[in-house]
């Protein structure tokens, strides 16, 4: 089990919204250059997308947070999402470095100063942006047709969930992605789409910051609470579930609708895992809908 001090990627994603630095600028963005045969990924979403395209054999380096698919764990590690070794990256001689929204501008500048082509993929704010970034990666790897096929299938699955939940009573939902501080899904994150597409109302959707306290959640009185933080068995997530269950005035507690979900699925989706996770969350919010989850 990971230690309590180990911050999940999901919380790092939301921490990015609070950091006092601007998104990466001045990054090389040309998508059509020499063929890419050696890749370094600086974040889990990029890593998963590379494998989804079938280009995992080109990945020569990634971070300690890149754990999906299973093969990603065996790739040479260059550091964590926010702290990595530029010297290590240089030694791997990549044709392309895939930066993320958590990659600091000064880090990108150093990579560029060493002649490394670096492309920035910002933290996606919606399912639409997740698909757009995937298609862009497909173009860079000369795999655009495959990328489009994958996106089309994912879009069909998402549309199906939206149709099934469109006429259902909308449920008030609290999606928790951090515990210290208590952190929620907000409108500026793709996680908000999980709730909206599932026929739910995000109780924290209109907030400018994901930081929230127990009193504010109690005031909004969610009918469903979904916990997406580390420790599904005996760790932080399980303790958070116990904390909520001690507040019987909540509709979610009274109706026994406090759930734990894998944070890796919720917080670093490819187009396919977004659809996978949406189907799971839709069933938690509307258990009466009848469909079999599709796997691709």
Compact overview of the structure:
With 296 residues, this protein is an alpha/beta fold.
Q: What is the average of the pLDDT values?
A: 87
Given as residue ranges, the uncertain stretches (5+ residues, pLDDT < 50) are: 1-7, 17-32
> Any guess at the CATH architecture of the largest domain?
3-Layer(aba) Sandwich
What is the percentage of strand-forming residues?
5-15%
Order of helices and strands: HEHEHEHEHHEEHEHEHHEHH
Silhouette: globular
Radius of gyration, taken over Cα atoms and rounded to an integer in Å: 19 Å
Give the termini distance in whole angstroms: 29 Å
Residues in helix, %: 25-40%
Structural class: alpha/beta
Largest sheet: 5 strands, mixed
As for the CATH topology of the largest domain, it is Rossmann fold
CATH superfamily of the largest domain: Nitrogenase molybdenum iron protein domain
Helix count equals 12
How many strands? 9
Give the class-level CATH name of the largest domain: Alpha Beta
Count of separate structural domains: 2
